[in-house]
Structure formats: structure tokens, C-alpha cells
Design goal:
binds zinc ion, 2 domains, alpha+beta, two-stranded antiparallel ribbon, five-stranded mixed β-sheet, 192 residues
Length: 192
């Protein structure tokens, strides 16, 4: 699904939003939609402008009464700080943190050949959180079973940590992530 790059008031990229969320922010007057030249539009102006465009990179959304372009970039009109974000604890994000490598043998695999492994097994009260869950290939996961790494003779390559959210980090590790052209010039200022 199309995503929208969210800039703060100072034109710094701060987030990536689902396009519906982005359109809602513009509709509520909390953000303005930006075209390719970074010209700002409020919601009504965006709809009016959309009717003159034959083609846009993000595509169009149509309802019986209106049709408008999906904004690829929006700018929050009141927001200067970079919002603090928590990285969602999900299977994909654990794989991304570990760069799709088994934490025991170090082999890199596609996600459908990877499992999540609880370092301290769940059967031994191991918690289900960033610092106790790692990426594991199937053979290592089976071999380790309900043991601690020490007991199994399978030391971790690195201790698991809770990742900090970064804009690029939220995009790049995903193997299928597509970065639209319009984002690139805005994101280049973000890379450290
Ligand atoms: Zn392995």
C-alpha cells in the first residue's frame, strides 16, 4: 500500500505513514500536502489541484464524489521536534534488527526460513521482548530447543537489544522496501 513521507515543520523527514493516515492529517489541518516542487496545499486546494493532474507517482484515490492524488510527502504544520517513536516488537522487526541472520550460526536466510528464538526459553519464564528474542534459523532453533545458549553450547553472536527507531532504519532493512523518487532528496539530508 502507498506510504507517505512525513516532514516536520522544518522540512526534516520524521516518519513514514500509511497514506490514509497522511490524508487524515491533511484533512484535519494538521499537515499540508506537498507536490513534487514542495508547494504546499491544504486539503481543499489539494483536491482542486488533483483534478488537473493526469498522472501522479502515488496514484489516485476515488470516491463517488471526489478524486484526489495520494500525497507522497506531507509536512506537519505545527511540529518541530522529531517525535519519539517506539519500534514495534514484531517478527519482521526482530528479523530486520538481526539483519536476517541467525543469531547462533550467523547464516543469512529469507524470512520464511527463519524463526524467532527465546534466548531464555518461554518454558523457563523467558520474556517475550526485544532483549530475549532473537532471529534463528530452523536447524539452530531445533538444536537449541528448551535450553539456554550456554547449556546448548550455542553462544549468541551478539546480545539482543531493543532497537532505536530511525527513519532510514524503518525503511531500509525491509527487503522489499521501495523508496519513491520524491523521497530521496528529502532523505539524503537525513543520513548521518
Ligand atoms: Zn543458525
Amino acid at each position: 500500500m502507498a506510504r507517505t513521507l512525513v516532514l516536520n515543520r522544518s522540512f526534516r523527514a520524521v516518519a513514514v505513514a500509511d497514506w490514509r493516515r497522511a490524508v487524515t492529517l491533511v484533512y484535519m489541518g494538521l499537515a499540508e500536502a506537498l507536490d513534487e516542487d514542495l508547494t504546499p496545499y491544504d486539503f481543499q486546494a489539494w483536491i482542486a489541484a488533483s483534478s488537473n493532474w493526469a498522472q501522479v507517482p502515488g496514484g489516485f484515490v476515488s470516491s463517488p464524489t471526489t478524486r484526489f492524488a495520494v500525497p507522497e510527502v506531507i509536512r506537519l504544520v505545527r511540529y518541530d521536534r522529531i517525535p519519539h517513536r517506539e519500534v514495534a516488537f514484531t517478527r519482521h522487526n526482530v528479523f530486520a534488527r538481526d539483519r536476517y541472520r541467525c543469531s547462533y550460526c550467523g547464516k543469512r536466510k529469507p524470512s520464511d526460513e527463519l524463526d524467532l528464538d527465546h534466548v531464555i526459553p518461554r518454558s523457563r519464564e523467558g520474556s517475550n521482548e526485544w532483549t530475549n528474542v532473537v532471529t534463528s534459523c530452523r536447524p539452530c532453533n531445533l538444536k537449541k530447543a528448551d535450553r539456554l545458549p550456554d547449556e546448548a553450547g550455542m553462544p549468541l553472536k551478539a546480545p539482543p537489544v531493543k532497537p532505536r527507531w530511525t527513519l532510514m532504519g524503518s525503511l531500509v532493512p525491509h527487503p522489499r522496501a521501495h523508496i519513491p523518487e520524491s523521497w530521496k532528496k528529502l532523505l539524503s539530508a537525513e543520513t548521518r
